[in-house]
Amino acid sequence: MNDRLINRMKVIFLVLFGVGVAGVWAYQWFWARPAKACAEAEAWWDNGSRTCARPVFLSDVTGRPVGVKRTPEQIETARTKSGLKREAQVQKEAAAKKD
User: Fold this and answer.
1) What pLDDT shows up at residue 71?
2) Angle at 83 between CA 81 and CA 89, to 5 degrees
3) Which residues contact 21 (CB under 8 A, 6 or more apart)?
4) Which of 13, 43, 53, 74 is disulfide-compatible with 70, CB 3.0–4.6 A?
């Protein structure tokens, strides 16, 4: 009777140990390894969505070097251009309503 109990307990503990090892391996393979690879690539890891993204710097988008301020003339030119775009859009909408 005791031999059967001991053998059964051995099997139960071995199965639990195997499940634990498989769980640790799965965590390392599917969660920790991608985050580490993303950090090594100097990218940003988002744990919520599990995505690795590269940051986009504003200087890359605008073409201005870092630390350079816009001059008042550049600001006024940008305002004028955006105003012209808005005016053109309003005129198109007005023309479309007439038709």
Assistant:
1) 80
2) 105
3) none
4) 74
Residue listed under structure tokens 């909408």: 93
Mean pLDDT of the chain: 85
- Token pair 């350079």 is found at 68
> How many angstroms separate the CA atoms of 99 and 94, rounded?
9
Q: Which residues, in sequence order, are bridge partners of residue 46?
A: 51
Rounded to whole angstroms, the Cα distance separating 59 from 87 reads 29
Cβ atoms of 33 and 25 closer than 8 Å = no
35-50, pLDDT tens digit by residue? Answer: 999 989 988 888 888 8
Closest CA to 38 of 55, 25, 23, 60: 55
Predicted pLDDT at 9? 95
Residue type, 27: Y
